[in-house]
Amino acid sequence: MIKNQYEQAVFDILTKQDSPESSQALYDKHCSDDCLWENTGFPPAKGREQINLLLKSLYDNDYYSLDQTVRHMMSDGNVVMAERYEKMLRKDGSVIAEFMIVGVFEFDDNGQICAWRDYYDFTIAQKAFL
5-129, which class in CATH? Predict the structure, then answer.
C-alpha cells in the first residue's frame, strides 16, 4: 500500500521503465536537476547530465528495460526506502542481470528526488557489465 506522494514517485520510477524512452522520461520527471545517484561500486552521478550519461552507457551495453518487483517500501518524512527484485532486460526480453536491491530516496522541497542510493551485490553488476 502506497502511503504518500513520495512513495508513489518511487514506485512509479521503479516499476514503469519498459524502454529507454520511458526510463528517461521518468528520471526527467522525478529527479531534480542536481540529483545525486549512487550505485554500489560505480562512481556517483551528480546532476541530470551525469545521470543521462550513466543511462546512455547502460543502453549502449544492450540494456533496454527493467522488470522490477517492489517487495517492501517504507517512508519517514521525505525519505523512502524500497527493497526490490530487479531484472535488467535486453530488447528481446532476455535477462542481462538479476539483483536484490535496497534503495534510499530523498526528496527535496519541490517533491523531486534529490538523492538516490542503491545497495546490492556488486559482483552481479561486474559479471553483467565489466
Answer: alpha beta
CB atoms within 10 A of CB 98: 13
pLDDT tens profile 87-120: 988 889 999 889 999 999 999 999 999 999 999 9
Quick one: which H or E segment has residue 105?
Answer: strand 95-107
Contacts of 66 (CB under 8 A, 6+ apart): 14, 17, 18, 23, 86, 87, 88, 89
Q: What phi and psi, each to the nearest 5 degrees, are found at residue 98?
A: -125, 135
Cβ atoms of residues 14 and 96 within 8 Å = no
Q: Which residue has the cell 527535496?
A: 108
Burial category of 69 from C-beta neighbours within 10 Å (exposed 0-12, middle 13-18, buried 19 and up): exposed
More confident residue, 127 or 79: 79
